[in-house]
Amino acid sequence: MMPAKEQIEQIIKELQQIMRICDWDIELNYLSAVEMYKKTDDIHTIANCVRSRAHHLATINFCYEANKTGEVVGGWYNTIVHEMFHIFIDGFDYAANLEFDHGDYSLPKERLICDISRMFVSLYPVSNFDRILKPEPFTVSNETIDKACKKQGWNLE
Ligand SMILES: [Zn+2]
Fold first, then answer.
1. Ligand 1 center to 132 CA (angstroms)
2. Helices and strands in the chain: count of H runs, count of E runs
3. What does the pLDDT average to over 107-114?
4. What is the mean pLDDT of residues 14-31?
5. At the topology level of CATH, where does 5-152 sit?
6. Ligand 1 centroid to residue 101 C-alpha, Å
7. For the chain, which residues make up each domain, given as ranges?
8. Does this model's pTM top 0.85?
C-alpha cells in the first residue's frame, strides 16, 4: 500500500541522517499523475528532484499514483532513495557538470544512482520503517465508548 505523505516525510528525515544530508531542507511534493504531468510535461516521469545548491533546498516531486508498490521496479521506497541520492551527490554532480558536456554525463550518472539506490534498499530495506508505516492499531477502551454513548443518550444494554 502507498504510504501517506506524512509517513514518507518522516522516512525522508531519517534517511537524511543516514545519508548525512541533514544540512538540506527537503520538501516532498506528493502529486497525482495529472499533477506530475503538468509539472514535467513528461508522462514517464514518476519522480524528480529540483535543487537549489546555494540554499540547500530540495523538492522531491513524487507521483504517488505511479509509485504504488509493484507498478515501478523497486517500488516507492526505491524511488525516494533514488531521488535522495541525487541530493547526496549534488556537490559531485556540480563539479562533474563543469568538466563534462551534460549530455555525456547524465546517463552514466542516472545509472550510478540506480545502482547505489538498489544497493542501499537491499542493505537497508523498507522494513526498517515499519514503526512509521505500520503504527499500532487505534484502539478505544470500553469506558470511552460507554461515556460517548451516555453523552449521546444511547443505551447499548
Ligand atoms: Zn535520477
1. 25
2. 7, 3
3. 91
4. 97
5. Collagenase (Catalytic Domain) (3.40.390)
6. 17
7. 5-152
8. no
